[in-house]
Amino acid sequence: VLGFNYTIRLVPDGRYGSLNRATKEWDGLIRELLDQKADLAIADLTITYDREQAVDFTMPFMNLGISILYRKPIKQPPNLFSFLSPLSLDVWIYMATAYLGVSVLLFILARFTPYEWQNPHPCNP
């Protein structure tokens, strides 16, 4: 239909392409392009200054960064005691026990203190 043939193949050394600073030689995809063994390279290749000096790049096709996908939780209809959900059952039991314990202790202390039964205003009934 388009009038040309193409072959998709992997790079023999399996590398993207990096510059050896000592020998000034490229490897990987960049080497294949420079040696004209390939006309086009398609990869998620990072555009660096050295690579940009050696070959031409198109507009980046991946520019969204890294994302994490997770399943959206299914909303459950709230039940009668859903307000108790933030704390565990043990915490609620400990809080109720502490509340009752402090209430009983205050009642006993108020019952046995002599100042509870004295009226500081004897003229007022």
UniProtKB/TrEMBL annotation:
Annotated keywords: Glycoprotein, Ion channel, Ion transport, Ligand-gated ion channel, Membrane, Receptor, Transmembrane, Transmembrane helix, Transport
Gene Ontology cellular-component annotations: membrane
Domain (Ionotropic glutamate receptor C-terminal) ranges: 1-119
InterPro entries tied to this protein: Glu/Gly-bd (IPR019594), Ionotropic_Glu_rcpt (IPR015683), Iontro_rcpt_C (IPR001320)
Gene giving rise to this polypeptide: glu06-W
Pfam family, one: Lig_chan-Glu_bd
GO MF, one annotated term: ligand-gated monoatomic ion channel activity
UniProt similarity note: Belongs to the glutamate-gated ion channel (TC 1.A.10.1) family.
Transmembrane segments: 91-110
Entry protein name: Ionotropic glutamate receptor 06 (Willow-feeding population)
Organism: Chrysomela lapponica (Leaf beetle)
Mode of membrane association: Multi-pass membrane protein
PANTHER family: IONOTROPIC GLUTAMATE RECEPTOR
Signal peptide: none
Subcellular location(s) of the protein: Membrane
